[in-house]
Amino acid sequence: MPVLLAAIMTAAPAEISPTLLSRITRSVAARLDEIARIGRDPRGGWSRLAFTNSERDAHDLFQRWGVALGLDVHRDSIGNSYARLGHSTQPAVMIGSHLDTVVTGGAYDGTAGVVAAFEALNLLRDGPDLRHRLEIVAFAAEEGARFTTPCIGSRFITGQLSLPALKEIRDVDGITAYDAARSRGLDPDRAQTEVWRPLDVHCFLELHVEQGQVLEAAGARIGIVEAIAGATRLVVTLTGAAAHSGTTPMPLRKDPLVAASKIITFAEETASRYARTVATVGRIRVTPDSPTTIPGEATFSLDVRSLDAIRQREVSAEIVRYAEVVAAGRRLGLAVRVLHDQSPHMLHYWVRQELTATVASTGTPYRVLASGAGHDAGVVGHLIPSGMIFVPSHGGISHSPAESSDPADIALGSFVLAQGIRRLDEYPLT
Ligand SMILES: [Zn+2]
What we know:
The chain is α+β, with helices and mostly antiparallel strands. Strands 1, 2, 3, 4, 5, 6, 14, 15 and 16 form a 9-stranded mixed β-sheet that branches. Strands 7, 9, 10, 12 and 13 form a 5-stranded antiparallel β-sheet that branches. A two-stranded antiparallel sheet has the order 8-11. The protein binds zinc ion (ZN).
């Protein structure tokens, strides 16, 4: 019998007892409360942006948790934090997520996965030794909220973002990701020696809140992610002529904001024609930004995502072509810059199979689904067998102070994560 099949057939069913579930649930809630004290935003929710003091404070808490559990903790040159169980030189099973948030974000995105990783490790250390090293990771700067480029920590440490590129990525104040990292005592220049080597990592598993409504609608408590949508992120700048709003007749205007509004509407219409494809304009800036002046310039972001790599680029290109037509018709200048372009990613087939078999063996209602949001697992997955477990988000709300997931679902997810690690520990992935 093939080894893989044998592993599947001999795995015992593993339902979670109500006592164990409530113990993990209490621990999950306590850890989430502790993180939630860091980076509260007076406008609502949490703002722990990439390479800010509050993000670093959350990473300090991570290290304290690791030390309290007797784990080996360290931080790499870009600010990812690690907590390792034991001193085995075997390849690692890496588990974790991120601790930064968007502006006025929620309390579960990223944090749920880090907390679940600690709970899973706690469950596993009570059982027989694993063949692989078990290591928790909290990635730095996952959200694209500050630098537009997401997953800076995971990209950089897996060699998918170079040092020169890190020096080109800027926030709205012109501060580069490189300088922002250095201002927090990190030293990206020494990353060369730290980059993850695929042979050193057996697999990477990330638990995350779904940030959508599929699981809740289906009455499922666990999701196994099969694919992560790709994203193309553009900045579109239209240049016209600033002029007096009272004295400039309509036919003589060169108004870039009206042109932008047409392009934004077109983006919505275009993405709506296709399944599993979305387009969003989330940021717009107008200069001089005065109620009595026709704008001279309008700049907006465009974020196109799809589970189909070709459609993702075709929709982006179609919107750009339309922008060219609108700009030419209105005698406006047009500049389009590509900030980020990541293809959709199918998560590792065998990891998915094992996670699916794991959740099925617990008797938990589950769904296999795709992720519309990007994740560190999608980045790491380009090099290392990776898998994702979702837990339901109430109302599908995320990137908002109203984001909410049930700690009992996160606890159940932690249990499935631990059981999945047991299976994958035995599994010849490489
Ligand atoms: Zn996240």
